[in-house]
Amino acid sequence: MRKQTKLVAVTAAAALLAIGASMTSFAATGWVEEDGTWYFYDNDGNRVEDEWKKSGDNWYWLDSEESGAMATDKLIEDDDDTYYVDSTGVMVKNTWVKVVNEDQDDDEDPAEYHYYYMQNNGKAYKNGDASTIKKKVIDGKTYAFDDEGIMVYGWVDASGDRLTGDDGWAEGAGDADAHTYYFGSWEDGSMKTGWQKITVYDDTDGKEDDYDYWFNFKSNGRVRKMDDEWKSNGKYYRFDDRGVMVYQWSMTNASDSNASTSNWAYFNSPEDGARLTKGWFKVVAPNEDNTFVESDDDTFAVGDADEENERWYYADGDGKIASGEIKKIKGKYYGFWPEGTDKAGAMLKGLCALKVAEDGSISKVIKWDMDADDLDDCMDNEGDFENKMVDGASLYYFGDEDTDGSLHTGNVNLNLDGDSYTFTFSKTGGAEGRGKGLTGVDDGKYIYKFGKRMKADSDEKYIVVKASNTTTGASNDTGSDGVVVEEIDAADLRKKAQPAGRNKDGDTVRFVGQENTAWDTDYYLVNTAGSIQGDKTAAKDGDDWYFYTNDDQIYMYTNNKTLKGNDEYTMTVDLDGWKKWTPTNTTDPLS
Q1: pTM for the whole thing?
Q2: For the chain, how big is the Rg over CA atoms in Å?
Q3: Core vs surface per residue 88-127: b (16+ CB within 10 A) or e
Q4: Nearest by Cα to 569 from 508, 526, 499
Q5: Is the CB of residue 541 less than 8 Å from the CB of residue 547?
Q6: DSSP result, 416-427
Q7: Above 60 in pLDDT, residue 487?
């Protein structure tokens, strides 16, 4: 209920104190408490019934239905007036009260509660004139009430009666003088003005279902209707005889294929309502319910059409719908689903895995609006991504569809399902290259795969990343440029460990590598920030093994950081002298 529903705040204890102060029992005259219940006796010793009695600043009702007991939590009908007493018996004023709807009917009156507004005199506000609607402004919002004081809601006619039934909202269709209003749900009840999207049941043209339609209500609450063209802020809108804003998809050439966006245009978008000539609009793709030209054939976005998903589309000055491209619009770049997909023409959103050709056309959307699990699958070549991130495919980020949706470049920090990720997307080029996620080593500081910075999580502390080609901005892990970026499982490294003798503590030391030989330069040690580690001695990872690096190159990986022997125990490999090893001699640690 988006209004004041707070009752007068008087606790039972406070009320009893107030009554006790002024309801002193004298020979069964006035206020008397009997077994925890208050009564009022007149001078003849009779209980008073169906009257208001005052105590202090408050009024109380003596209820004949309870043998004269003070009423609590109850609507009171006194002559033609309706009041309400709270849990302490006090008549409430200047406030909303809600009462359980004992006659709740899902079809005619689905309200779980009925709302009343009690005025300064405690009387419920009522419509005393059945011939016209009676409205009242409360806390800056406008409400209407019936002749019993019940707040009306939903569709209401000019006399203030609720229009019930499936098609009640359309009552008066064809009559321009049959004014209707809309007061929201029973939990709301405030009169609506301006643009409102409302779900109504529509059984015209065989639809027979609930639909979300746009209506516009004048400042006095009356719905605009009857094909009346209405100008607002330089734009023109039209409404049918029920008040529904007219909007239609239409084929520009009905003889051509329904499955191509190039053969469709949109007029009077349900999002902006204007006669569309150029710009953005968010709607459901054309289906049998919203097309101007009827057809039994599938339309260009059959999946979205069937599921009635609203998407953002862009039409150029000729009304042509953008699709299958990264397009520059007012200085920003946006992506659109290609033809032949169930979302053709829809604006891309969020983190997307795409194949983009040199001319900026999008040949394939592998995944869009990716979550953290999708990203993991992409990095691991699993699930929907298995063997698909090839031939130039990479990640792109288009932002949130309702706040921006444009292609992001440079460094971007994303939060996916509570996890934080750092990406770098290309800043250069036009639609053919801008926004593509980098793959490879960037400036000797970080390693990226499809734009995602490779880094260890807090438990791992360090990870090994293999980048077979250090070309900055490389586009994929198996593509024509030969770049491969992959995280190496530390367990796979440890399986290759060789014994190097026993250290002075008598522990057997094992190491991954080869004596007097550094690891291939394709292998990098990366920390939790994603930084390549240039000079580390005994950097312990989450598995309690130790890495050794010098000038960005990994030399070895050991199970113990004590590398010296003594007279009793001998190190057969001089691991302690690893910095003297010749880095020009390299080996693949996994070979």
Answers
A1: 0.58
A2: 38
A3: bbbbbbebbbbeebeeeeeeebebeebbbbbeeebbbbbb
A4: 508
A5: yes
A6: ETTEEEEEEE--
A7: yes
